[in-house]
Amino acid sequence: MNKIKIAGFISAIAFLLALGGQQAMCQMKPINFTKDTLSNGLQIIYHIDKSAPVVATIVHYRVGSRDEHDTQTGYAHFFEHLMFEATSDIPRASIDKYIQEAGGDLNAHTSFDETVFYQRLPSNEIKLALWIESQRMRGLLVDPVGVETQRGVVTEELKMRRNNQPYGTLLDEICLGLFPGSSYSWTTLGSEEHIANATIQNFRDFYDNFYQPNNATLVVAGDIDLEEARGFVKAYFDKIPKAPLPKRNDFKILPMTGEVRKEIEDPKAQLPGVFIGYRSPALDDFDYYPVALLMDILSAGESSRLYQAIVDKEQIAVQVAAFPLSLEKSGMSVFYAIAAPDKNVKDIEKAIYREMNKIIEKGISDEELTKAKNIKEADFISSKKDVLEKAQTLARYNSYYGDPSYINSELSKYLSVTKEDIQRVAKQYFATDKKVVLFYMPKKSS
């Protein structure tokens, strides 16, 4: 499965600049779609793309780690795995086999606010994809064999990702520090203990509450005939009964009282690292766009401010980056740097603040803003050329905004950002002591 990783947050996007923002913009055509809703509440989006004989399906469930209880964490991630087990009509360990034998691929991911399953197949296999997703939606077998199999798989994954790689607990620590008392205070991996202690009934209750048609968006995109696809969707999904709306936690984010600072001995780290987390805007806040551009100005490529100052000029770090993590109810921005040999992580921390303060005090140049917009524009346009990525984006916009047409308009929000917006958000979100600062230090020789 695809998982949240630091490397996943920071894409190597410098080469996209060569595309040229204006050239990409000229090539962008509106993405047309049709939206339906079944009587059971399932929302469906159809998008026709005849460029290749391929169909992609997305099922986007509005359930993530945010929807868990503080004594039952990791359930959404667990179901990302369990959904590949058996259903009432699909034998155990057969879903991957069916898709691969049909010449397709499939995957899934879980985040704080969503769990998403996606398939890509030759277009003549559209019925197979829809049948599988309808089976998983309400026919999943939450039984001892599947649960115990995936309990072992998930437990090993938790150990591997937290204990067997350097800086493996950094997101856990940052979330706990930034969102105390909130269900954003734990990551999607959740607690190994909670997964170990969960009963079959615990998991069945979670499945019955959240994996329902009225808590999902289905996207069917690619080389399809619209009316034929509608007929298949109706045949497989319309018979699923309508369920009550999911019961959700009362969500709240408490104010931070100050800085959280922690030093962590990490036996897997070869070099010290510094990680600095701030709260930042939620997905539906316009400030998300200037913050995202600010992160690129600071860290996108070797010409970025942080790289030039800390890696090239001062040579106190071998790697430095910054990324925003967008959440539905809030957000976070994380800066990190890996120290050069024999360099002090506290000097790196000061250097990061110094570069941010330059923007707070003096703003950015026209050239920097243009470059950041070109990066976003080229990335945005490039991602809309793939049918699976378009399907994922349509599902996301429908789920979070109730409006898939954002796929044609969100770019304009980036392009409308001004230098003044960049300077304002730099001061508003990053000129504060309300942050999490983590120093990961290699284990000292005994």
By secondary-structure content and strand pairing, the structural class works out as alpha+beta
Strand content: 15-25%
Main sheet? Answer: 6 strands, mixed
Q: Report the CATH superfamily of the largest domain.
A: Metalloenzyme, LuxS/M16 peptidase-like
What is the 3D form?
globular
CATH fold descriptor of the largest domain: Cytochrome Bc1 Complex, Chain A, domain 1
Number of strands: 11
Notes on the structure:
This protein is α+β, with helices and mostly antiparallel strands. It folds into two domains: 30-237, Cytochrome Bc1 Complex, Chain A, domain 1 (2-Layer Sandwich), CATH 3.30.830; 260-442, Cytochrome Bc1 Complex, Chain A, domain 1 (2-Layer Sandwich). Helices cover 42% and strands 18% of the residues. It has a six-stranded mixed β-sheet with strand order 1-2-6-3-5-4, sandwiched between helices. Strands 7-11-8-10-9 form a five-stranded mixed β-sheet, with helices on both faces. Helix 2 (21-27) runs parallel beside helix 14 (366-383), helix 3 (75-82) packs across helix 6 (144-163) and helix 11 (288-299) crosses helix 17 (419-430). The longest helix is centred in the middle third of the chain and has 20 residues, at 144-163.
